[in-house]
Write a structure and sequence with these properties.
mainly alpha; globular; single chain; 246 residues
């Protein structure tokens, strides 16, 4: 067996890239050759959730397999693009773009900016992202709406907090409609929170309600509140408006 130092640095990765190309080339696998970016979306979602399961279970052998499945999806999309007229990018373009992005997002490592804690890094990441994507007019722009509702709610709340919008105003607006609803509880642990969420889902199912759809409806209402709050300073005189938050 060759000594590890004598092998190519990423021999396994290069072999997998070549395998994807072979499967999609003429004479390869008809199914692979027929796939498109759109047809692969369902598999990317499934593989991502399977990877999450492996991470949460702590099974490292399973994690290796599921990371490979996700990696395969990335390579698959890159190979499709490399052989599709008008797209003209490949896995090296994807990697180079990501490297440039990470260098740009880490000026405390690759530049002259200083950050001694993780909080310091998070504090200026938003500014960097705003410079990269000036077309975004709201902190909620760019949040993927396809996320599961609970994850989406947490993401929206985190983004809204950056512009000083919390759940208070939204909760007050819904107070009349929910006057007879139980008081909101604050579970002290994730185990207790999980139990309560599960009971809510069970109750919704028993009543014929769709918990996912219900939460998405609430999220849309909260999003409207956030966007309305963001629009308010724009109506003030220019000299009264503060600096942009994103």
């Amino acid at each position: 067996m060759d000594h590890p130092a004598a092998r190519p640095a990423h021999e396994g990765l290069d072999e997998l890239i070549a395998t994807v190309a072979l499967l999609r080339a003429p004479g390869g696998c008809p199914w692979d050759a027929d796939q498109t970016h759109e047809s692969l979306v369902q598999y990317l979602v499934e593989e991502s959730w399977e990877l999450i399961d492996a991470i949460e279970s702590g099974d490292r052998a399973e994690m290796i397999e599921e990371l490979g499945d996700v990696l395969y999806q990335v390579l698959f999309h890159a190979d499709i693009a490399a052989h599709t007229a008008g797209e003209a990018f490949d896995i090296d373009d994807v990697a180079r773009h990501m490297t440039a992005k990470m260098v740009s997002r880490h000026p405390h490592v690759f530049g002259d900016r200083e950050a001694s804690t993780a909080d310091d890094v998070v504090a200026f990441w938003e500014d960097l992202k705003a410079e990269e994507k000036p077309h975004r007019t709201s902190v909620l722009d760019g949040v993927p709406r396809g996320m599961p509702a609970l994850a989406l709610a947490q993401k929206m709340l985190g983004k809204a907090a950056k512009v000083g919008v919390g759940i208070g105003a939204f909760r007050a607006e819904a107070a009349d409609a929910a006057r007879d609803a139980p008081a909101v509880v604050s579970p002290p642990t994730e185990d207790e929170l999980g139990r309560i969420l599960f009971e809510i889902a069970a109750s919704a199912r028993a009543q014929g309600l769709d918990a996912e759809r219900a939460l998405r409806g609430a999220i849309r209402g909260f999003e409207a509140e956030v966007r309305a709050a963001e629009a308010e300073p724009a109506a003030e005189p220019a000299d009264a408006a503060g600096p942009a938050s994103d």
